[in-house]
Design a protein that fits this description.
The complex is a heterodimer of chains A (334) and B (378). Chain A is built from 11 helices and 12 strands. In chain A, strands 6-7-8-3-9-10-12-11 form an 8-stranded mixed β-sheet, sandwiched between helices. A 4-stranded antiparallel β-sheet of chain A has the order 2-1-4-5. Helix content of chain A is 31%, strand content 21%. In chain A, strand 9 and strand 10 form a beta hairpin. Chain B is α/β, with parallel strands linked by helices and 378 residues long. Helices cover 28% and strands 20% of the residues of chain B. At the A-B interface, helix 4, helix 6, helix 7, helix 8 and helix 9 of A face helix 7, helix 8, helix 9, helix 10 and helix 11 of B.
């Protein structure tokens, strides 16, 4: 897309495990691979507990992966440690879901926004302050009014602007946004999404956008990766994923989104039940316990991601045919 | 002109069990004022509406628009001190707005019930689910322990909780967010209320779970022919689930009407703006969303004239001086605007003024477009 052939970020066979007591381990992320080109937005979507946030944390090396490789800007982060790692991942910044708790309540907004510069000891006090002010203006905050206030004086949307300003002062290449708008009202959500799109273009950023709402993810992303219980189900360009969902889980996610059109037929291809326990994931395909198309083969063999179209990969033994739009046939509920 | 006519829900579509003049819920000129450091502020300022038995009303607005205060004041849950309340809340012919807490206890659960946004804080963390469900069943229905328990099992089963027998002895923290909200719904339904108030019942839940919970609410509402008030900030949640929708802004209802009319022909610019803010699956990715600039006004310093005027792209001089009344546009569709929107939002929802094809690569952005030249923040 931008002429360079090397992706800015590539993740290969990422595995993240956490101890679950009694010598048991829970695999939060199992064999996840993807790459993001410079200037691209990758949307990572799935239900709570599917490992999408853990993937984001593992990319930023906040949670160290158990195995697999994370290559950012030509450096293999998974090989590095200490001071070397700190420098190598300087270009990665994060934005979190809860805008209020991710800001230090005892510091002023100007201090919060300037903090990355102080950590890296960039320039003198004056130039740091100027750059913090510029970043605040870029996100639509007036530094003269807002700079001396503290986070509790701001609404959720304003706090998310402060978080974005703080991330911008660090001059990132890659911004990992972990559910940045799920705690916000629809009207404020639109403001923040537009702001993210604007700052991305203005500063030439690459985004990894993590959310559970496929409508939000589709709006901001160039390509989307759907995760379920630690594994990738499907990756495709955003519009292709909506037009031709090949994995039954993707289709179910699409059907769950409320349509703002009262005349739209109520889609009943809804997913039933809760996510199985990640401590004992189902054998074979992990979605099979909630999949209405599941067959014996699905419990015996783990489906591999395979190409079914340009840049469209799916991990399913029986992918849905392309062009099969979402049906409105009523599922019989139990 | 503050009080709207009472028969705002058309009765010609088959609700023949009750005459039109006696709706299930009738709210008239309700006002709730809070004494604050900045003086008396009205979080709900002259709201009137009615709801028929078995119908659903969607109450939509941003944070701070007064929708939760409205729901709580209908329920009688506002604090007694520091609050002034006027107007009427008629439930099934009885004015419940002036009842004492003791009198209200006979109504809560039995006549009207409420589901709150956060089931973790609404449920008692140290009491097992079973007792939380059966407690008020035994008080209101006068049934014994064993009978209440079997009723609770049936109830949990009807809200789609697997292994209901075992779940009764669980504590709230042992359940997932969606299951907790199902338990809340079961508690609210236990004594067969006539009216159910659901305050942001799915905010904070995953979309898949949200769809399940909304489906469950709709199914239970139809089965029990309850009145339902669905309070939410997301218009998409209301579409297809409520016959009527009311949009609130700064304490007032600014538009209400049959949901399909309101969604396709919004007259109030605020309603239109809320609709345009929703990310839509059927539009290509990177379609620019219609964000509403600014925030709802500070209730202690309301602008003169229309309360939405400072954020309204169509505001004119009259809007800044005179407050528009709630007028009827026809067929139960009310709006409060001097210059209502004439065009309808097309079924395809492709907005003409939106930038649909933004450049994706950063190279196409010139530094003059940016407020800060690209080199400066480095």
């Amino acid at each position: 897309m931008t002429g360079t052939t090397e992706p800015l970020l590539s993740v290969e066979h990422l595995v993240v495990e956490f101890p679950a007591g009694r010598a048991r381990w829970v695999q939060a992320v199992s064999d996840v691979s993807f790459s993001v080109m410079e200037g691209e937005t990758l949307g990572l979507v799935g239900e709570s507990g599917c490992g999408k946030s853990t993937t984001g944390m593992a990319v930023a090396q906040i949670t160290r992966p158990t195995s697999g490789r994370v290559i950012f800007d030509g450096k293999e982060l998974t090989e590095l440690a200490g001071e070397k790692l700190r420098h190598a991942k300087k270009g990665i910044q994060l934005i979190f879901q809860d805008p209020i708790s991710s800001l230090n309540p005892r510091r002023t907004v100007a201090e919060i926004v300037a903090e990355p510069l102080e950590v890296w000891k960039v320039g003198d006090r004056r130039s740091r302050r100027n750059r913090a002010h510029e970043a605040m203006e870029a996100v639509g905050l007036d530094p003269r009014i807002s700079g001396s206030r503290r986070p509790h004086e701001f609404s959720g949307g304003q706090c998310q602007r402060i978080s974005i300003a703080r991330a911008l002062t660090a001059d990132p290449k890659l911004m990992i946004c972990d559910e940045p708008v799920s705690a916000l009202d629809v009207s404020v959500q639109a403001q923040i999404i537009n702001l993210l799109e604007d700052t991305k273009r203005r500063y030439g950023l690459t985004l990894v956008f993590i959310a559970h709402d496929l409508a939000v993810v589709k709006n901001v992303s160039d390509k989307i990766a759907v995760m379920y219980l630690g594994r990738l189900c499907e990756t495709a360009p955003a519009d292709e994923l909506y037009a031709n969902p090949a994995h039954p889980y993707t289709k179910a996610l699409l059907a769950s989104i409320p349509s703002p059109d009262p005349r739209a037929a109520t889609l009943t291809a809804r997913i039933q039940g809760d996510l199985p326990s990640p401590l004992a994931p189902p054998s074979g395909c992990r979605f099979r316990t909630r999949c209405k198309y599941a067959q014996p083969r699905c419990s015996e063999e783990i489906p591999r991601l395979s190409e079914i179209g340009p840049n469209h990969q799916v991990a399913c033994h029986f992918p849905l045919a392309a062009g099969a739009t979402m049906t409105t046939t009523a599922d019989k509920k139990g | 002109m503050r009080t709207a006519p009472l028969d705002t829900i058309s009765n010609d579509t088959g609700s023949s069990d009750r005459p039109a003049f006696k709706p299930l819920l009738l709210v008239e000129d309700l006002r709730c004022g809070f004494h604050t450091g900045q003086g008396l502020i009205h979080a709900v300022d002259g709201v009137s509406f009615s709801l028929e038995r078995g119908r659903a009303l969607g109450l939509v607005g941003e944070s701070g628009s007064g929708k939760t205060v409205l729901a709580r004041s209908i329920m009688g849950l506002l604090p007694r001190s520091g609050v002034t309340k006027s107007g009427q809340v008629n439930l099934d012919g009885q004015d419940i707005s002036q009842l004492s807490p003791r009198q209200l206890r006979h109504l809560w659960g039995a006549q009207l019930a409420m589901i709150f946004q956060d089931p973790m804080t609404a449920l008692n963390p140290v009491v097992r689910i079973g007792r939380q469900i059966t407690e008020h069943m035994r008080a209101h229905l006068g049934i014994g322990r064993a009978e209440a328990r079997s009723a609770a099992v049936a109830l949990l089963e009807s809200v789609g909780i697997p292994e209901p027998d075992r779940r009764l002895s669980s504590y709230p923290h042992q359940l997932s967010g969606g299951t907790r909200q199902r338990v809340m719904i079961a508690i609210a339904l236990a004594c067969g209320p006539k009216l159910l108030l659901a305050d942001e019942p799915t905010t904070g839940l995953d979309v898949t779970v949200q769809a399940q919970v909304l489906d469950l609410l709709a199914a239970q509402q139809a089965r029990r022919s309850m009145g339902l008030i669905l309070v939410t900030h997301d218009l998409a949640v209301v579409a297809g689930r409520a016959e009527e929708t009311a949009v609130m802004y700064a304490g007032k209802i600014v538009e209400k009407g049959p949901t399909s009319v309101l969604f396709h022909h919004p007259l109030m610019p605020y309603t239109e703006a809320l609709l345009r803010a929703i990310p839509r699956l059927d539009l290509p990715s990177h379609t620019r969303l219609g964000a509403i600039p600014g925030r709802p006004p500070d209730l202690s310093a309301l602008p003169p004239g229309c309360r939405f005027a400072p954020r309204c792209p169509y505001a004119q001089d009259r809007c800044r001086t005179q407050e528009p009344p709630l007028e009827e546009a026809g067929a139960g569709h009310f709006f409060a605007c001097w210059y209502p929107r004439k065009g309808s939002l097309p079924a395809s929802w492709s907005y003409t003024d939106s930038v649909t094809d933004l450049p994706r690569a950063p190279t196409s952005v010139t530094s003059s477009q940016a407020a800060i030249p690209e080199g400066q923040i480095q």
